[in-house]
Amino acid sequence: MKENLEKINKFEWNLPKKSRKEMRVDARVIANQKIMDAIEDAAVQQLTNVACLPGVVNPVVGLPDMHWGYGLPMGAVSAFDDQDGVISAGLCGFDINCGINLIRTNLSSDDVRKEADRLVPSLFKAIPSGVGAKGRLRLSPDDLEEVLKHGINWAVDRGYITKEDQDRTEEMGCMEDADPGKVSDLAKKRGSPQLGTLGAGNHFLEIQEVTHVFDKNAAKSWGIEKPGQVLIMLHCGSRGLGHQIATDYLKIQEQAVKKYNIWLPDSQLACAPVNSKEGQDFFAAMKCAANYSFTNRAVMTKWIREVFERVFSRGWESMDMKTIYAIAHNIVKYEEHKVNGEKRQLYVHRKGATRSFPDTPVIIAGTMGTSSYLMKGSAKAMEISFGSSAHGAGRAMSRHAAIKKFWGDKIKSELLERGIVSQATSPKSLAEEAPLAYKDVESVIDSVHGSGISTKVARMIPIGVIKG
Amino acid sequence: MKYRFIDDLTSDVMFEAYGKDLKEVFENSARALFSVICQIEKIGKTENKIIEVRGRNPGELMFNWLQELISTVDIDMMFFSEFRIVEINEKYLKAEIYGEESDPSKGGTVVKAVTNYKYLFEKTDKGYKTRVSLDI
After folding, report:
1. Among A424, B20, B47, B48, which residue's beta carbon has the most beta carbons within 10 A?
2. CB spacing of B105 vs A425 below 8 angstroms
3. CA distance A194 to A296
């Protein structure tokens, strides 16, 4: 299928709908030549599968970090008409609102490196990490209902974060019309003990140092003054609650596909008409998972601040530890977009993708050993990618293959040689997230910036890494 | 062979499990799953739990069995290392599973879900075979 991609310019490729008879719209890939060479044919094929779904709006977009995923590649965005389209649990992914919080400090990397041997283990202790980790909170059923319905308002009311943090969170940390009544008891049981836990896999907490500032005005407006400044990046999601909601609604929507007679090129693209019960119930339940994830990261924000207070013997406010922004990946949004000059309401499915609206922060995580970027959303993203950008480096190797190829202990010592202190629950979890298991993040950023779907503001490298 | 892992994806884990009968293939697939979730060889058998699962056919029963085990890790905060199917037919199973309180230092990785990708449950000349892709 890849051979059908037509080069539009240095960073955009079009796969015309004539490439496959069932395609209703084109597929578009945003990538430089190096990324394009590395993209798997199967991932391009997956974009064409989505382009066959009812009510899909032109085009289905593959982002520069795209790699094969279940149903749709990770690193892709697809939008659907709000009358004739579908809402899909399959297109959202299992880790609903997996996302990133970026917190700034006024500390210098010199200050932090001196304390890294204390700071990293203290953070590791304060943030329950890894599979099977016990959370520090005991939520009552009423608390959980409130988190699901009102998101981080729950955390603001209880002093975990401030109103200012909330203002710096996508959707203000609360998607409206979330309905806990649409969430199964099993999902609630899984979520209840896990609020305030990091999880495992690709989830992490990093202490980072700014190495470059590209856009001084944007950086300054977000509290980044100069290279050497320390930031904190927290990446995690909605934990077992979100996984269960996705699992539950995949089953429900598999039945809906039969009921509404929807032809699917891949059964993993389970979906339901936007205005059906199966579609709207998923949307209302998905919002609960999104709210839970925003709150999960808010709770950990407080604990991170407390550790910094202890290690540096100062209040967090005096270290200017404010949220730069908190963003979501893996989410469905009801948004207004211009399609052929006409304003339309669309259900935008971002899977491994970041919202990139003009002038809003876009955070792209690298890997443990490489750089991450703070970028700025753009009007160009509104034109070509439904206001979306990449979310990370994108895997180049399966986790299973990475574990076989790399030794966790060796990775830990290699990171240390480069001045990065790391702590993980097991060497295996370092191995599966080994930097070489990912694509080159610089090529992803070159494609994102070059295409204009977001522009570079600052580059960061890790000083300390905590992994589940 | 009880089970083996297969390199297939850039994002996840796939395994095949085998058994001469339903009982064995269900027990072996649970072992494969927990060798991803935790360091199964380090997990004791101090606590046990009875699980009952239903499905419309053996394939769905397997899917639901593995999904039930995944959610049990979160809810009971336990890792498991031994799985005894005490009763099974094509639509129902009852199992006694043994393990201990979860401890991340004996953990592997979070398994988010069983997926439909290349999912397979089939009768073979030698008994049964299942192929499972996990989202991790």
Report:
1. A424
2. yes
3. 8
